[in-house]
Amino acid sequence: MAIKSDERITKLFHGYIRNKKILIADPNSTSRSTIAQGLINLGAMQNHMDLCANYDLAQEEIKRTKHDVVICDYDLGTRCGLELLQTQRESVVEMSKSLFILVTANASQSAIAQAAEEDVDTYIIKPFSSLTLRQSILTAASEKLFPNAYRKKIEEGKKWLLVDKIELALIAFEEAMELDESPTLACFYHGQANMVKDLFELAEGDYNQGLTYNRIHYKCLVGLFELFMAKKKFQDAYNIVRKIARYFPANPNRLGQVVRLAIMTENYQDIEGYYQTFIGLDHRNAQLIRYICAGLVICGRFYLQKKQFPRALELFQKAGVTGTSDPKILKEIVCSLIEYQLHDKAKDFLKRFPSKTDEDADFVISQFLVEEAEMPIHQSIDIGQKLLKKGITDPALYRTLIINTSKASMNSACERLLEEGSAKYPSYKGEFLNCKELKKAKLQA
Amino acid sequence: MSDFQINPNDFESIYLNISIFNKTAKTELKEGRRYIGFKAENITSEDLIIHIVELLKDGFILEVPQKTCSKNHLLEISIEFSNEDQEDLFRFHGTVIENAPTISNNRDSITVKVSPDALSEYKRFEATYLKRQEEIWTFFKAAKG
Questions:
Q1: What is the ipTM of this complex?
Q2: Cα separation of A293 and A289, whole Å?
Q3: For B63, which of A28, A116, A182 is closest by C-beta distance?
Q4: Checking CA distances to A127, which of A387, B58, B83, B106 falls within 20 to 30 Å?
Q5: Cα separation values, A116 from A247, B101, B127, Å
Q6: What is the mean pLDDT of residues A25-50?
Q7: Are B20 and B64 in contact (CB under 8 A)?
C-alpha cells in the first residue's frame, strides 16, 4: 500500500475527525482503549467517542448518535460487526463523508472478501501496530474523503447518472478514464450508463475492459453477471458467478445463485465443490439450504444415470443430513432410488422421515413407492389410485401407475392416467408416454 | 487454484496458541491452565486466555488474566502460529515494563519489552502479520478498484 500518511493528509484528516462522532465496538476492553488512543493521536476528541463491548449496544448507539466513524470488530459475540454498516447507512445522511472500519483478529479471506464486497473502507487485522492503524485509516480516509481528480470525475458522472443525464455521465466517465492508469471503476460506471441505454454489448465491453485492468474487480464482475442474466446467457452468467464466488466466497445468496445456475447449465459435477464451501459458511439461510439440498439430489441423480451408485448415495446422504430430514428432499431421494431399482436403499431413506403419518403426503408417496414393488400388481394399482382420489399426487406416482396399468393390460386406465398426469405435470408428458410405450414394447418382445 | 474454484481454506483464519512462562514467579499459563511450579492449579471459572492487543516497536501489549505477572518480571512467551499455508513457533524472552488492570473483570493489560537477543525473532513475528495486512490492502484495492 502506498503510504499516503504525508503531512497534508494528516492535516486534512485532523480537520475532518476533530468534530466527528465516533463509535468503537470491540469485545476486548484493551483493544477499545488502544483504538481510541490511536484515533486521539490522529486528532479525534475523546468526548465524541462511544465505546461498546457488544453488537446490541453498538447498534443502539449508532441509531441514537448517528456516528460518522464506526470502527468495529468482525466478530461481535454471536453477531457479525459488518451488520452495523447497514445500521450506519440507515442512520447517517451522507455516507460519502463517513467511515466504516473493521479491526479484527479474523484474517480469513472469506471475511475480508465479504468486507470488500460490502464496501467497508478498510480492514485491519489484530494484533496491529500503531503505525498500521494510522496508515490504514489515513489511506482509507484520503481515498474517500479527499478524492483525487479521477475520483472526483467519477462522482460527477454518478451525479449525472442519478438525474438521468446519461450522455453527460458517459462523457464524465470517459474523462475519468484519462485520469488514471487503471480506470476500472470508471469503466464500470461507463458500463452502467450503457446498461441504462440498453446498449448491452457496449456495457459488456466496458466491464471486460475494466477487468483487463483488474481481474477481480467486484463491481465489474457483478455488472457482467447481471448483464448475462438479463440476456439469459446462463452459461456465461455461470462462469462469471463462479469467478465471483471464488474471490468473494462468503455470501450465502451468491452461493445459492451459483448452485441454481450449475443446475440450469447442467454442471452437476461442480455441486459437490459448492457443498464443501457451504460447510465452511458461518451463516446459512433456509433458502441456501434448500438450494444446496436440491443441488445435491440433482447431482446424485446425475451419478445414478452414470451408474456410479456409491457416489450418488454419498450425495443423497449429504442432502438428507443437510436438509435435516426435510420430507420434500427425502421424497426426491426415494423417488430417484426407486427409479433405478435401488429399493433397499430407498427403504433406508424412508426410515428418516420425521413424521411417518398419513398426513404427510411426501411420506405417503415415498412409502407407496417403496412398498409397491413387493405387492401384487393389482393391489399396487388399487392403492395408487386411492392415493390419487385422496388428492395425493406426484409425477412418480403417475409414472408407477402408468407402468403398472400398462403391464396389467388395463389400457383404458393407462390412457386415462397418461392424460391426467400429463395435464397435471405437462413437463413430464414425454416421460409418461415413454413409460407406457416402453412397457408395451417389452411385453410385445 | 483456478479462477473458478472456491478454496475451502479461504474460510480459515490465523490461529494463535500463546503461553507465558513467568521465570520470576515460576508460574505458567498454558493451554487455558495455570501452573504453579510443576503443579496445575485447578481453575475452571477464570478466563485464562491470552490476547495480543498491540504490536510495539520492541514488544507488545498483552491482555492476560490477573496474577499472571508483575512489573519487572521476566517472561518467556511462546506463540504457536498457524494459518492455511504456514505453521510456526515463535519464542521470546522479555520483561514486563507496565501492568495495569483493565475494566474487564480479572484481566490485566501488560506491556512486555522483548529482550535484545529476541528482537529478531520478534521482528519475524511482526513481519508475518504485516505481510497478511499488506495482502489485505492489495486485495481491497483490487476488489474495490
A1: 0.88
A2: 6
A3: A28
A4: B106
A5: 10, 36, 23
A6: 94
A7: yes
Instruction: Record the cell numbers describing residue A210, joined without a space.
Output: 475494466
Contact yes or no for A116 and B139 at CB 8 A: yes
Q: What residue has cell string 483487463?
A: A212
Cis omega before residue A183 (within 30°)? no
Q: Is B33 helix (H, G, I), strand (E, B) or coil?
A: strand
Q: Test A219 with B53 for CB contact under 8 angstroms.
A: no
Spatial separation of the C-alpha atoms in residues A224 and A237, rounded to whole Å: 8
Cell numbers given for B54: 498491540
How is residue B26 annotated by DSSP? T
Q: Do A437 and A414 touch, CB atoms closer than 8 A?
A: no
Distances (CA, A) of A82 to A158, A291, B101, B104: 26, 25, 30, 24
Q: What is the pLDDT of residue A70?
A: 97
| The predicted structure's pLDDT at residue A3 | 47
- Tell whether A191 lies on the interface with B, counting CB pairs under 8 A: no
CATH says B13-144 is which class? mainly beta
Instruction: Note the pLDDT tens digit of each residue in A338-351.
Output: 989 898 999 999 98
Would you list the domain boundaries of chain B?
13-144
- Spatial neighbors of B104 by CB under 8 A, at least 6 apart, are A28, A29, B63
User: Strands (DSSP E) along A126-258, which ranges?
Assistant: 128-129
Tell me how far apart the alpha carbons of residues B46 and B67 are, in angstroms, rounded to a whole number: 11
Residues with Cβ within 8 Å of residue B59, at least 6 apart in sequence: B94, B97, B111, B112, B113, B114, B122
Whether the model pTM is above 0.90: no
User: For position B44, what pLDDT does the model report?
Assistant: 52
Give the span between the Cα atoms of A393 and A267, in whole angstroms: 30
Q: What is the mean pLDDT of residues A323-334?
A: 86
Q: Is B9 touching A (CB cutoff 8 A)?
A: yes
Beta carbons of A132 and B142 less than 8 Å apart: no
Read off the pLDDT of residues A100-112 as tens digits, 9 standing for 90 and up.
999 999 888 878 8
3-class secondary structure, B89: strand
Question: Which H or E run contains B90?
Answer: strand B86-101
Residue that the C-alpha cell 452414470 belongs to: A306
Considering only CA atoms, which of A76, A71, A105 is closest in space to residue A88?
A71
Which residue of A1, A5, A26, A30 to mutate against B (max B Cβ within 10 Å)?
A: A30
pLDDT tier for residue B11 given thresholds of 50, 70 and 90: low
Residues of A in contact with B56 (CB under 8 A): 129-130
Could B3 and A28 be called an inter-chain contact, meaning their C-beta atoms sit closer than 8 Å?
no
State pLDDT tens for residues B61-105.
999 998 899 999 999 999 999 887 778 999 999 999 999 888 777
Q: Using CA atoms, how far apart are residues A258 and A238, in angstroms rounded to an integer? A: 7
pLDDT, average across residues A119-139: 94
Identity of the residue in B8, B63, B136 whose CB atom sits nearest the CB atom of A125 = B136
Contacts of A440 (CB under 8 A, 6+ apart): A406
Closest Cβ–Cβ partner in A30, A107, A279 for B53: A30
* Chain A residues touching B102 at Cβ < 8 A: 29-30
Grid cell digits, residue A219:
463491481
Residue contact B6–A273, C-beta within 8 A:
yes
